[in-house]
Amino acid sequence: MRTALAALILALFLLPQPVAADENAIQGVISSQIEAFRADDFDAAFGFASPTIRGMFGTPERFGRMVREGYPMVHRPETLRFGALREQRGRLWQRVIVTDADGRMHLLDYNMLETDSGWRINGVVLVPAPGVGA
Asked: Which of 36, 70, 71, 99 is the most exposed, having the fewest neighbouring CB atoms within 10 Å of its CB?
């Protein structure tokens, strides 16, 4: 009985947990960055990235090239919806559902970081669609 209880408590800590963070502010940052991408305003889009991401890419031009080539669904989304905001292992993740110009749906998890300048995007992970094997 103790082992089962301990396993349940451990599982609860390892599962993604919903959070009560400033969801509107986080979604606003993501929406603003995507609007900047749509306008090819990579300077503005780069400003929504965390200091770590800005340091990795160095310039808005390199950052923009990475997005155009690696995340075309984010560069030119047809539709955008927000899913759950959750905390997992001390990190905050916002699920974003994007439909691209060809009608394909993409699930992305945005890692969000609160800085002195407000919320910033600290990385994006493309989530495999349910039922699609590798």
From this structure: 70
For residue 75, the model assigns a pLDDT of 97
Alpha-carbon gap, residue 41 to 22, rounded angstroms: 26
AA identity, residue 124 = V
End-to-end Cα spacing for the chain: 38
Cα-based torsion angle of the residue sequence 54, 59, 64, 66 in order, rounded to the nearest 10 degrees: -70
Give residue limits of the domains in the chain. Answer: 18-127
Instruction: List, for residues 54-112, the tens digit of each pLDDT value.
Output: 999 999 999 999 999 999 999 999 999 999 999 999 999 999 999 999 999 999 999 99
Query: Hunting for tokens 């408590």 — which residue is that?
Result: 9
Residue 38: CB atoms within 10 A of its CB come to 13
Q: What share of the chain is helix, strand, coil (3-state, %, to 5)?
A: 45, 30, 25
The token pair at 55 is: 């340091």
d(CA 37, CA 76): 7
Cα 83 to Cα 126: distance, rounded to the nearest angstrom: 14
